[in-house]
Design a protein that fits this description.
alpha/beta; Rossmann fold; 4-stranded antiparallel beta sheet
């Protein structure tokens, strides 16, 4: 880990009278897998949307690669996978991939190679010509992940990427995440699954819009004298998901 690629300073977000993020301060280092753990409504999705430049904080600042967000200059460095699959249902998987590859200005030769690589990673090669409307929910999640990886982003922001994916494939997806980390990529992953939290280098525990603790899984368990991340989360004042 070399330096901070994400810096969040005193960030709050309000929708109407509801404060969904409350004075968040956090740095995420280049080359780490950082997990945001918390139940639904904790503020995880709002925070990662701000990191991707899709939401703007009500107060505070976010820098990504030392540049203030939102920033169009950073779009090629970021890969974002939302909770809801942003896919064109009337197109085939190949046509979806070709469309997003064109958005990222991938050259024809590179586009062809990356299309094969990402579909092999998510084990959808045999379904490349299938119309996305005929995909299962889990297959759509896998295709969304493939699209997020297509342009080899330096920072991957993944909002509950393995929801609806079977346990065997989930393991292989996490192996791919660790391979990307070895290549120097930075990953931010939201989850409410405790065994996935254990796979992260560091965790930010969130509850009701607040960051209640930050540390490695081992540190968080040691500090609370807990045997599991779930116990540690509860000890810090979290609620069970």
């Amino acid at each position: 880990m070399n330096s901070a690629c994400v810096s969040i300073r005193s960030v709050s977000k309000t929708f109407g009278t509801v404060e969904v993020l409350k004075d968040i301060d956090l740095e995420i280092q280049q080359g780490e897998i950082f997990g945001l753990l918390g139940p639904s409504g904790a503020g995880k999705t709002t925070l990662v949307k701000e990191l991707a430049g899709l939401e703007v904080p009500t107060s505070g600042e976010i820098d990504v690669f030392q540049e203030k967000m939102p920033s169009l200059h950073l779009i090629e460095k970021l890969g974002y996978m939302a909770q809801s699959d942003a896919l064109y249902m009337e197109l085939t998987a190949r046509e979806n991939l070709e469309f997003f590859a064109a958005l990222y200005s991938l050259r024809k030769r590179e586009r062809k190679q990356r299309l094969v690589e990402v579909m092999e990673l998510v084990q959808l090669t045999d379904h490349l010509q299938k119309q996305v409307s005929n995909y299962s929910g889990g297959m759509k999640r896998r295709l969304s992940l493939a699209i997020a990886l297509l342009h080899k982003p330096e920072l991957l922001i993944l909002d509950e990427p393995t929801v609806g994916i079977d346990p065997v494939l989930r393991r292989s997806v996490w192996e791919a995440f660790h391979q990307l980390k070895e290549e120097g990529k930075t990953l931010i992953v939201t989850t409410h699954v405790m065994d996935e939290a254990e796979k992260c280098d560091r965790l930010g525990l969130m509850r009701e819009g607040r960051l209640i603790a930050v540390g490695t899984p081992k540190e968080l368990k040691q500090e609370t004298d807990s045997n599991s991340i779930e116990e540690a989360f509860l000890a810090y004042g979290g609620v069970s998901s």
